[in-house]
Design a protein that fits this description.
- With about 900 residues, the chain is mainly beta.
- It has a domain at about 40-135: Carboxypeptidase-like, regulatory domain (Immunoglobulin-like, Sandwich).
- The strands form 9 sheets. It has a 22-stranded antiparallel barrel. A 5-stranded mixed β-sheet has the order 3-2-5-6-9, with no helix packed on it. A 5-stranded mixed β-sheet has the order 10-15-16-13-14.
- The longest helix has 18 residues, at about 10-30.
């Protein structure tokens, strides 16, 4: 490859030496062999006593029915069972001379201890089995930081279509931003394995809701076992096969319905082609090999046309001429068929397969897990409303493959070994073939002027990246005694990034036919890089009757692969050189590491309440797209280019971003089924990505990515939970939050330097773009499971900030005003029927029940989405086919209108 990569690939021996050094550093922390990605199992613990005298009973057998898991009580009558996958179990206690007791509906959650105590009664004549139904405590006394756990059963009773909708329902989360952090600061896991795209930093793969066993959302000061995240963790635990063959299939169809037809043309019709979904899962033992093999298969295909349509009045190849002063003399070359084309559609196909192999009494067996997702979508661009075929299409394919083995060393310790490969392939283009004759010269996009829709033209850039991450990790969990549980672990992660972007050139030099520029020029960037990461931690969970402590420390180490420009002011010199560049201009990026302490305390103040306090340091490498951007350091002196190329150079020597987080909270049981949680938090954020401005040839401004941005977040949440009982359940949470920083976007400084006149970079904290001061979420579920369920989800929030402006010139301080408030209600109704011993359900879901016109974006001169002063200002009419009113009608400034879907499911 070119320059940066050629030189880095020559450093193999040095990389090996660095690896040895990193391993030595990791060894200082200990023999670290625990899941770096976070837990996937929980624990049951408790005490067994004689009901007549309260004395502890020794040697009582405790068994999880339907499994091979169990324990025996010690001399103090205490027991524990570790390594339990999340789910609901029956726990049985038995001892000769006593009536056995079975407790049903025992809920086990990830990373938490479920307390189950037994009182056994002597039975001299006849042994009777006593059955008791467990009730999950409202107050989780071993919780030392904020987290939410949502089971698959809970998700199935609410109008929720995907993982992001579940996550955004949690207190402190605003459109994917956890407690005021940027979107790339959240770690997403599936069965403990990271599914963040290392290139972009965002989640590249989500499990479907029909395959979720439990969803864990960490928004607080999470423990040392979780890394590579500054703001939060989303842990998706998928279902495992049971002891019998079972499955479910479902399908639905629907469409959008609204009275605002002036804003959303081509909806309010019933078409099964606009919104539809097919999904199903099947699990159980393999017939004939019941004791050896179990499987779980899940699949889903979903298509949503979106509510925003364009009209194909023009084809990309059309040309028009609006230069004449008299509109009668304009030439309009429209050859389109005037069909309506969806411009914000989403099509997704997901397939998951999991196979469990029982290979002996000492192990839980081998588990092979694969998850594939293929997504195609479009992002609405207002300019292309009458030329929809000229805009970009987006494609993303992701594949996760993992193999894990759990070796049970004893009843007190188990070892997990996991290897995984995660690949994401992203493509963005209009036509897949860059030499497709349908590409046209850029002048077609300049036929119109003013506030006019494009009457031809194509986006002529291609963007491609493939990221593959190979991970090896080992996990050890050791319950030393009833008080101490040690977790310790080590992880090695090797990344391969293949990137390419180029502009399709069509001009006189190419005889006006599509051609590619020379690789290495400013409009043809490509590189391959192989950065790697090491991490390890050790953590002790101390559980006393009067105190629970999570105490840990974590080491993160990152080795970048590449060189950076020592002095960006010398960038003009590079135009005369070809890679590899001389050492006088370049330097090799240095390794980055940090030791991060974490501590959390939970103090029970009574049988019905507990206070927790937590504190931690957090470390995260910036997304790799910022490290390796523009690897040939070419800055053109003229022309306009996409924001992510052409005007910015990357920096492989970027430091890690850092956050220090504090939290204090109270859990209180108000009644048996009603609980209250109050939490206050503060975050200090440093070393965030920003840009510094340089000038090439005393003329062209460009930027270099550096660690310069900072911020702080403070707030509190108040949550109520009414556990589902007596046919009704509900949740209510309120969040007050102040999220401020010097910039919301890493490119903020460069964007301000481009303004005329340039805008001064913030030196003080201003509200961030996602600073929603007040948020209120509620859910209400009523009915009888297996018969009838009705549920609603409601969201109410104050408006997000915006910057006042007139004619693109700021008239107030940055983000000094707020948009209108946000309100939304979703409804879910389902009815179950018994059909020859099988369960069938029919359901309806209504999203945005009241068809609320939430203004998610606004015009800077009015602060509203539906009106701008540009409509009253004397100005020349657009030189195009539309009126000014038509151009300033922005459907993308509003949330989606009402959507109704109807479907059915069949369980077997």
């Amino acid at each position: 490859m070119y320059g940066l990569i050629n030189r880095s690939l020559l450093q193999d021996l040095k990389i090996i030496e660095k690896l040895k050094i990193a391993l030595s550093i990791a060894a200082i922390i200990g023999l670290m062999t625990v899941n770096i990605y976070g837990g996937t199992t929980g624990k049951i613990a408790g005490k067994v006593i004689d009901a007549s005298n309260g004395e502890p009973l020794v040697g009582v057998n405790i068994v999880l029915l339907g499994t091979t898991m169990g324990a025996a009580t010690d001399v103090n009558g205490e027991y524990y069972i570790i390594n339990i996958p999340p789910g609901t179990y029956q726990v049985r206690a038995s001892l000769i001379g006593y009536s056995p007791v079975t407790i049903q509906d025992v809920r086990v959650s990830v990373d938490q201890t479920t307390k189950i105590d037994f009182k056994l009664t002597t039975e001299a004549i006849e042994i009777k089995d006593v059955v008791v139904t467990a009730q999950k405590p409202i107050v989780q006394k071993d919780l030392t930081s904020t987290e939410a756990k949502v089971s698959g059963d809970q998700i199935s009773m609410l109008p929720l279509e995907d993982i992001q909708s579940v996550v955004n329902l949690q207190a402190g989360v605003v459109d994917g931003h956890f407690r005021g952090g940027r979107t790339g600061e959240v770690k997403y896991l599936i069965d403990g394995v990271s599914v963040n795209d290392a290139f972009s930093g965002s989640s590249a793969l989500d499990a479907e809701v029909n395959s979720i066993q439990e969803l864990q959302v960490l928004t607080g000061t999470f423990n040392a076992e979780y890394g590579e995240a500054l703001s939060g963790v989303v842990n998706q635990i998928t279902k495992i096969a049971g002891n019998k063959l079972e499955g479910e299939i479902s399908a639905y169809s629907g469409d959008y319905f609204t009275n605002r037809t002036w804003l959303y043309p081509n909806i309010n019709k019933i078409s099964p082609k606009d919104v539809y979904n097919f999904q199903g899962n099947l699990s159980g033992p393999v017939p004939g090999l019941e004791n050896l093999l179990k499987f779980f298969i899940s699949g889903r295909y979903v298509y949503d046309s979106g509510a925003i349509y364009g009209r194909r009045m023009f084809n990309p190849s059309d040309s028009s001429n609006f230069s004449a002063n008299d509109p009668k003399d304009w030439y309009i070359g429209a050859t389109g068929d005037n069909k309506y084309i969806p411009m914000n559609y989403n099509r997704r196909f997901t397939l998951q397969g999991k196979i469990s192999i029982n290979i002996g009494d000492k192990g839980r067996g081998l588990v092979f897990n694969t998850l594939y997702q293929d997504q195609q979508y479009k992002i609405y661009d207002h300019r292309f409303k009458l030329n929809p075929d000229g805009d970009y299409n987006y494609f993303q394919k992701s594949f996760l493959g993992s193999i894990s083995y759990t070796y049970v060393m004893s009843n007190s310790a188990f070892l997990d070994l996991v290897g995984s490969s995660f690949t994401t392939k992203y493509n963005q283009y209009v036509y897949e073939n860059p030499l497709d004759p349908r590409y046209v010269k850029p002048e077609r996009m300049r036929d119109v002027s003013g506030n006019a829709f494009l009457t031809g033209g194509t986006e002529n850039w291609h963007f491609h990246h493939t990221t593959t991450t190979y991970t090896a990790k080992a996990d050890l969990t050791w319950q030393i005694n009833n008080i101490h549980q040690i977790k310790t672990g080590f992880e090695y992660k090797f990344n391969t990034i293949d990137y390419q972007d180029f502009q399709v050139v069509i001009d006189a030099t190419t005889n006006y036919k599509p051609a590619l520029p020379s690789p290495g020029s400013f409009n043809f960037n490509q590189y391959t890089a192989h950065p790697y990461q090491l991490a390890g931690y050790i953590q002790d969970k101390i559980e006393l009757d009067y105190l629970v402590v999570n105490l840990g420390v974590r080491l993160d180490y990152f080795e970048p692969d590449g060189f950076y420009l020592k002095n960006p002011d010398n960038i003009a010199v590079l135009d005369q050189l070809q890679p590899p560049f001389p050492d006088s201009l370049m330097a090799k990026a240095k390794a980055k590491y940090q030791i991060s302490p974490r501590i959390g305390l939970s103090y029970p103040i009574s049988e019905k309440g507990a206070v927790h306090i937590s504190y931690g340091h957090f470390f995260q490498i910036p997304p790799f797209e910022y490290l390796y951007r523009n690897p040939n350091f070419r800055i053109p002196l003229t022309g306009d280019f996409p924001a992510n190329i052409g005007n910015t150079i990357g920096n492989t020597d970027l430091d890690a971003q850092q956050t220090v987080m504090y939290e204090i909270g109270l859990q209180q049981e108000l009644t048996t089924n009603l609980g209250l949680t109050v939490t206050g938090y503060y975050k200090d954020i440093r070393n965030l990505l920003g840009t510094e401005i340089h000038i090439k040839n005393e003329f062209r401004k460009f930027s270099k990515l550096v660690n310069r941005d900072y911020g702080s977040v403070k707030g509190f949440t108040i949550s109520f939970e009414k556990r589902f009982s007596d046919g009704i359940g509900a949740t209510l949470d309120y969040t007050f939050q102040v999220a401020k920083g010097n910039a919301s976007d890493p490119n903020d400084a460069f964007n301000k330097a481009q303004a005329n006149p340039p805008i001064e970079v913030n030196k003080q904290l201003v509200p961030l773009d996602w600073d929603r001061r007040h948020s209120l979420n509620f859910t209400l579920t009523a009915g009888k499971p297996g018969n009838f369920i009705a549920s609603v989800i409601g969201k109410l929030g104050s408006g997000l900030p915006y910057t006042p402006s007139i004619q693109n010139q700021r008239t107030g301080l940055e983000n000094s005003e707020n948009r209108p408030a946000y309100f939304n209600v979703d409804l879910y109704l389902t009815k179950y029927f018994d059909f020859f011993g099988k369960q069938i359900s029919v359901f309806a879901k209504v999203y945005n029940l009241f068809d609320t016109a939430n203004e998610i974006n606004v015009f800077g001169d009015t602060g509203r989405a539906g009106y701008t002063l540009e409509l009253t200002r004397a100005q020349e009419a657009p030189r195009g086919v539309n009126t000014l009113q038509e151009y300033f009608t922005r459907p993308d400034f509003y949330s989606s209108p009402r959507q109704i879907i109807i479907g059915a499911s069949f369980g077997f």
